[in-house]
Amino acid sequence: MGTLYLVRHGQASFGADDYDLLSPLGQQQAVRLGEYFKYKGITFEAAMTGTLTRQRQTLAGICQGMGVAFDSERLAGASTAENAKGLGPHLLWPGLNEYDSEAVISAIHPYPLKKPDTPELYRHHFRLLKDGLAQWMAGVVSPRGMPRYTEFAAGVASALEHIRSHHQGNVLLVSSGGPIATAVGQVMGTSPEATIELNMRIRNSAVTEFTFSSKRHRLVTYNTLPHLDAPEYAGWVTYA
Predict the structure, then answer these.
(1) 27/234 Cα distance (integer angstroms)
(2) Is the separation of the CB atoms in 221 and 207 below 8 Å?
(3) Residues 6+ apart with CB under 8 A from 89
(4) In this structure, are residues 139 and 165 in contact, taking their beta carbons and an 8 Å threshold?
(5) To 5 degrees, how large is the angle CA 211–CA 202–CA 106?
(6) Are residues 122 and 116 in contact, defined by beta-carbon separation less than 8 angstroms?
(7) What are the Cα distances from residue 41, in Å, to 12, 34, 37, 59, 86?
């Protein structure tokens, strides 16, 4: 029986010209999670991440906090010495990449949105995103440059199948809210509406745990922040 730790990336740069970069706080969240894993004596026989910058930066921060080497290009086949340091070979998995939220919104709202710099504009952004996701998942709209939802979900399922087929111990998976919520939905059999709600609730650097065998995954915890469970980290809890 193995344990899969699914980690959402740290805080990205919401509202900036390039969202796909960790903010300074996002970097701190990732490093702090790595420090937590090291403190708890949790090591991993392998790590998987999507190819997006914020996902790879989060894995790099976790490695920094754990005190282990990071190489974003390293694939399966790392040496025993590398494994002994606490984090085995890294595997880049495009199926763990996030959907394009701007494309999802544009599919149902063709006019440019104002920068979400007020609470109302922030809420408006996410109301549109939830509506767009529901229509994408139902096959009603086809956001520009994105796969069909069935293909997106298949990319997530392929990562879970790879883990079941190749591993038996602890595995670290770093991704984004959409793929992680989709993974939970696949394991729990949730409705599209519930999967969207899971996606909207997940916090930056949050940890979700599955146990797994060669046949299936089972949910143990969802959206936890054990590394931030202290008063001095109260201001580190973010969602975007």
Answers:
(1) 16
(2) yes
(3) 46, 47, 74, 75, 76, 77, 78, 82, 83
(4) no
(5) 125
(6) yes
(7) 28, 11, 6, 17, 9
Is the distance from CB of 113 to CB of 125 less than 8 angstroms? yes
Q: Which residues pair with 174 in a beta bridge?
A: 7, 49
CB 43 within 8 A of CB 60: no
Q: Going from the N-terminus, what domains does the chain have, and what CATH number goes with each?
A: 2-98+148-236 (3.40.50.1240), 100-145 (no CATH)
Residue range 17-61, pLDDT digits in tens: 668 999 999 999 999 999 999 999 999 999 999 999 999 999 999
Name the residue type at position 185: G
Predicted TM-score (pTM) of the model is 0.92
Instruction: Give yes or no for a contact between 93 and 167, defined as CB atoms under 8 angstroms apart.
Output: no
